[in-house]
Structures are given as C-alpha cells and as structure tokens.
Design goal:
Layout: E1 5-10, H1 17-29, H2 33-36, E2 37-40, H3 49-61, E3 65-70, E4 77-78, E5 81-82, H4 83-93, E6 98-103, H5 112-123, E7 129-131, H6 134-153, H7 159-171, H8 190-201, H9 210-219, E8 223-226, E9 231-234, H10 236-242, E10 255-259, E11 271-275, H11 279-292, E12 298-301, E13 304-307, H12 313-326, E14 336-340, E15 344-350, H13 359-364, H14 374-383, H15 392-402, E16 409-413, E17 416-422, H16 442-445, H17 450-462, H18 467-474, H19 478-490, E18 494-497, E19 504-507
Parallel strand pairs: 1-2, 1-3, 3-6, 6-7, 10-14
Antiparallel strand pairs: 4-5, 8-9, 10-11, 12-13, 14-15, 15-17, 16-17, 18-19
Helix pairs in contact: 1-6, 3-4, 11-12, 12-14, 12-15, 17-19, 18-19
Amino acid sequence: MTATLRIFVSSVQKELEDERLIVQNLVSTDPFLSAHCVPVLYEFEPASPDKALEGCLASLDGCHVYLLIVGVQYGTPVGEMSITHTEYRRAKGRKLPVLAFIKGERQVPREAGTVALLAELDADGLKYKRFGNVIELQKEVRAALVKLLRDRFGIAPTSDENEIAEQTIEATSAFESRPLDRVRWRDLDLDMARRLIAAAEQRKPDELSMEDLLAGAALRGLVWHEPASGEHYATAAGIVMLARDPSAVFPQCRILADAYRGAEPDGNPRDHEDIRGPMPLAIERAIEFIDRNTRHPMRIVGLDRVRLDEYPVDGLREALVNAAAHRQYEDAGRKILLEVFADRVVLSSPGLPPKPITLASLRKGKYRPCSRNPVLAQCLSWFHRIEERGSGFRRMRDQMLDHGLDQPLLGTDTGYFQITFPGPGENIERLRVPQGRRLVTPAVEAQLNERQRKILAHALKSGSVTTGWCMEMLGVVRDTAHRDLVGLVELDLLVRKGSGRGARYVPKEGGSA
C-alpha cells in the first residue's frame, strides 16, 4: 500500500458525537492504525442542509473506507433520506468497503428511518457488529480495520502493537472525548494550538493558516462541531491542552507546587504556586518552579564553567508529562501535587496506574504502554518532543543514574501515584556534568592561543583575571595581555568589569554558545 487509507466516519452527529470522537481518537492514536489510516469526520458542515449534503458527499468521495455508526435517531431528512442514509448509498454505489456498527441490541426501539436503514443493510447482506459502550466500539472498529488492512494490503500489526492497543482500549477513560459546549474554538489559546499542530505535523508554525489550525485540532480530537449553531467547541481534551485556564471548567486541572526548607512538609513552605494554564505551559511553569527552588552548583570542566541542575530536567519533565497524560481526570477533587524538599522532589498524580500495569512491572521496566487518556498523551508527547512511546519510566531511571543520582522511587499514597526523585543531599559533588553541556565548543577552543587558555582557566578558578596577572604570570607586555583579554571578550567568554588599570575580566555567565 502506497497511500494512507482515509476512513470516512458517518453517523447522526448530535446523538453519536461521543462515539464519533472515540473512533477518531482510536484511529489517530493507535500505534498500528495511525501509521496506515486517517479518520475523516465532516467537521465543517454549513448551515444549509442541501449544501451540507454536497459537502459530505464530496468529502466521502475522497475516502477509501466508509465506517457507519447507527444509533436510535435517523437524522433530518434531506429530500427522501437523511444525510447518513444518503452517504451509505453513495459509498455502496462507489463500491467502498463498508464497516457498520450498531449501538444497542436488536430490540432497542429506533426511529422509523433508522429501522429502514438497518433493513437495507440486511438486504444488502452487510455484516455488521453491535456494541453497547465505547470500549466495545473501539474493539470492534479496530478489529475490522486490522482485518481490512490484512486482507486487502497484507499489512498486520505486531503482537506488541496488538497488546498495547488492547490494554489502552481497556484503560481508556471517556473523559477526554466529551463534546462540551463550554469553550469555543476562538476563545482557546490559538498560539498554543499553533505550536501543537506545527509540532504534530512537523511544519513551521507561521506556515499554518487558521483553517489549518482548526482542521488539525479537529483531526486530533481537540475540537468538535455543533451543527445547530455552526460553532466549534473544545472537547475535554481540547480544554486541558488549549484553554487559557482549564481549571475554570475542570477545577482538577491544576498543579499545586510547594517548596519546603527541610525534608518534611510544614505549614509554611518557602515557595508556593498554584499553577494553571494550558497543560503544556503548566508543565513548563512547574519545571521553572523546581529550577528556582533547587541548587545549581557551578562546575569547572577544562575551559568550561558549567551550571549544573540538582535534578535532570528531562527526567522531571517526563514525569510531569506522565502525570498530566495518565492521571484520573474523573476525580474532580484532586490536583497534581509537586513537592520540593531539601533532599528530594515528589510528584503525586491522582489515580493508580491503569490495569494491567502494576508498580512491580513499572519498577522492573517490563510493561506494555497504555493510557487512560491517549489523546492527551499523544499531544503532550508532540509538544514536549517525548518519543519512544511507553518507555518513560525507563528513561527517567537512566536520566537520574546518568546525573549521578539514585533511580526514582515509585509508589502510591492515598489514591495518588507517586514518583520520588532522590536528591544528592549534602553530597552535591556527586552530580555529573551532562554530556553535550560543553560551553566552550571545540570550534571556539580552536581559536584560543596557549596564553588565552591559561587566562580562561585562571578566570574560571578564581572568578576573575586582570591585565596585571597576565603580564606577571605569562611574561608578556601590557599590549599583548590586553589583546588576549579583548579576544576572549569578543569570543563571549569573558566580560570586562570596570575601566582603566582597575578593570577586571570575569567569566561570562553561561559561557559561549
């Protein structure tokens, strides 16, 4: 197969909005399906029924598979049939593969038009599947698409992909796909949306039009279309990711951060922040909170003076992303808790790991990834450029060990899942300089003469250097010493403080790029 299969999702929009979004999210986030399929929902339906029908059919004509979901309602007729019924006839006429899913058992009372549509499916000899909830729907849809890809194109998922899909479907929360009418598309943080869609599509942010943003957000399950008003609204996932203050709708969408002076909590933390905002920004603000409440010793390495972090920033960010992506959002009374102590950082996320993941499997690093909130997990991974799906805890462990610290501790406390990052304590010297943190790059170092290397080394060790020191210790005249020092300033390695014979030169904070 050389092209991606476009899957047209057809249903009565208002009655089956949850199911439509669930199917869209499944196809977009499943590791196997997302590599070979793209869901198509007609999200830009105009107000006029006739024009809506034309648009739907034009969109359907550009697709390869017709996926039909039938509930109780038939939909508003346009001419003799509803739009959904007309779409089915069009797909049948174009000989597209038809995958049909019926909500509820046969005895469920349905509108007359729906009964007629089901009778037509029977007369056409179409084999369809029934489902009772969104978990069953996801399983049936995935099985049908996997069979189609295998039978027609010889493509099949690996056993790992099947296991990941099964566990994710079982763990999936209905929270993130809820089509709410609380926050309109135009009231979201559109700059955040631009950054997210650009990262997801590997495009430059300024290349994206407003239409691109809306289409990208709709494709990823962050917005939905309300046909009656013509408005686009954020789904629950869209509110968490893109609302300027998600906690105005979901009070649980906050990170409560406290920094304590000692190793135990007390009633008077030295710093506190109630972090609110689009979740990607909230995570970065949490990183900044840790940064300002932890130590940053300077380490001299060769011709470098390196500012170290007490904890590996990438490991902390990974933990925060996991907390936001996998927490139990149905628990509206609890927030993510971030606690910075003198000897550790503790992150607590509401809800225990979804089954079948256990603390034992996490500690061993032997588990298959699954998420309660796959849309949020995928969007946050794009935004924070976190890859290797499902290996987050292994990466956190490696990052802590590489930093010279003990590995994170995983546990639970009163319904919270906790990650504890042990710090260096009094032994700050155990911290290691991360690879790739050389401030004086080889290209810059190659431009230094031997005298300048000695000057820079002395400035790093003592904190400053003067023209007089260069003349005395290097045996050079004032003009030579001045020329060497000016060269180091021009290379952005030293900064001149003062003037005349009292001038001194200090290392540039942060060093050369």
